Amino acid sequence: MILFDSKVVLMDVKNKSQNSFLIVDDHPINVDSYHALLKKIKRYEKAIYSFAYDCEQAFNTINNNYLNEKTIDFALIDISLPSYEDKKLYSGSDVAVYIREKFPNCKIIIISMHKEPLWVNQIIKELNPEGFIAKSDINYKCFPEIFKSIEENEIYLSQSIVLAQKILIQKNINWDNYDSKILQLIADGIKTINLPKFIPLSLSAIEKRKSNIKRELVLEDATDKELIDSAKKLGFI
Q1: In whole angstroms, what is the distance from residue 112 CA to residue 134 CA?
Q2: How far apart are CA 237 and CA 233, in angstroms?
Q3: What integer pLDDT is reported at residue 17 of this predicted model?
């Protein structure tokens, strides 16, 4: 006799009948625009849509779906979001990681105004999203193409994201995710002493990595300002 888990069967039926989307962006006009573009795709007209405008709302939506056995099939996430410090969610990246934890089969599409090479490299290595789109590349024609590719288990990268990756390859930079994140956080004004709050490394380990970054881009004894100025001139951030 074959036994079935009733919860799994129930969730499978829901998945087959309707797609579920979570759209997260701190600008309501963007959320409305993505929603409108998705609804123009015939197979998504009757999809289930949830919206969040900061990390706290996203956390609550993800948890509610999980506890009520409702899936999230696609998540469109902006990286720059108001944080939810109580749950250590500081950006859309953290929200995406949390979705991966609760819904491993959810297809994550990162949408952001940022397209700096090191930042792009950091997001791809950290999240490995099914889609990564620069906001400047979005138009009403691209959404059907994006989701067709993703549904066929292809990775969709918009033109600006592909270009950012090429720049890193051309400059022969092979830092890991932590190195890229250190540079990006310093550029955002985070002091070195506070970096362990954002990166799971000791202060001494971060300082060693920071010295190596300076050695590669400018001089080991350069100031943080000189480091960031050099990184910007090279087109990294």
Answers
A1: 5
A2: 9
A3: 58
